[in-house]
Amino acid sequence: MRTLALILMLLATPLAAVEPDEMLDDPVLEQRARDLSKGLRCLVCRNESIDESNASLAKDLRLLVRERLVAGDSDDEAVAFIVDRYGEYVLLTPTTGGANWILWGAGPLMLLLAGGVGAAYLRRRSTAPAPQDAGLSPEEAKELEEILHR
Fold this sequence. Notes:
It is built from 6 helices and no strands. The chain has helices at residues 2-11, 27-37, 56-70, 75-86, 100-127, 138-148.
């Protein structure tokens, strides 16, 4: 019995936090609202969509999405309305335009830069002359003998 319970817990997927009083009567509009809600970040929970979050702000955002769809907005217009109000951080997948190119390109650019620096270091290291062992000077040898025989 415990094994079955463990398997069911591992297979459980997160349930949507959408409450019955939020749902629209039109199933097509409701599906559009659910699809949009899955791409919007809960600003309280940070890395959870508003479709999955139980936070009151997430509920407000879900209702706002539905309100915009009922008003006749397209999907892009509804998302743009929310982004204009809350900023681009509300998108779970940020856009790749404008200043975000810097953020999208910074990771690969740093990887290439680190690879270049590492390759240059290894190349310089392999061509550097081997250190010569000069041995001890007569004074150092005498001092070493004195230390060892104390």
